[in-house]
Input
Amino acid sequence: MLSHYTNKDLIIIEPQVKDKDELFEKMVNHLYNLDYILHKNSFLKALKDREEVSNTELMPGVALPHSRSDSVQKLFLSIVLIKDGIDFGNPEMGKAKIIFFFGTTDKFNKEYLQLLAKSARLLKNEEFQEKLLLCNEAGQVLQLIDHYDKPDAEVTESKTHYLMLITLHDAHRLDDLLTYLVELGITNASVLDSISLSNRITLDIPVFSGTYYADKKKHKESEIVMCLINDQSIAYRLSDLLKENNIDFHKKGTGYIQLIETSMLIGNPDEEIEL
Output
């Protein structure tokens, strides 16, 4: 849960800052005073270097600046709310009003990825955003997070491995699917582009396509995602996450999930994800 990585001291409401650079400097000083980082300059540089790679205001009004640095003592989430917003250097997204700061070291890489993924999913919820901006105290923010962020179910690991095959017919929702996999701790997935039989017949095979009515919203592409898991309940948790975000595999034409028990696994399928 997000509340495991933040607290009242890490929640800042209406800081007096005029731009992103000043916000970063004040936040780094604040984190240093709270003993979350050892070296102010190195962490500030890491934050700015990450922004140079790509701006972290990823949704209108919402930014997620983050960095991995050896100067970080422990994985943390700091939340900043600025109701009038500040210029975050991404004109298409407008001023940033909700800013989630993250910091970690390589030691907590997997938890860090899960924290980023879960935060991104919650922040896509417009109701959650609106209620965050109505908070006037840090305690209110924590209560709101606990209300929207459901506790993680316990994973029962076993020696049995399963190949989980996920077929998604709407390729435009692939980013959401991959984000949910990371949130569930899965970093070994492979993605294959595909075309379903239905689309192949109705769009490409002349004897059938002549009876197909033109629908510009119809997309040819599907995606197949393959990964290894060792707990069958992960498939159900993934399905629930997808359904909460309008990807319902129980609806015809959305896609489906398969589990195939594997008899042998040689090597380590997990990969390191560099951000």
Strands lie at 11-13, 57-59, 62-63, 66-68, 76-86, 96-104, 161-168, 190-195, 221-229, 255-262.
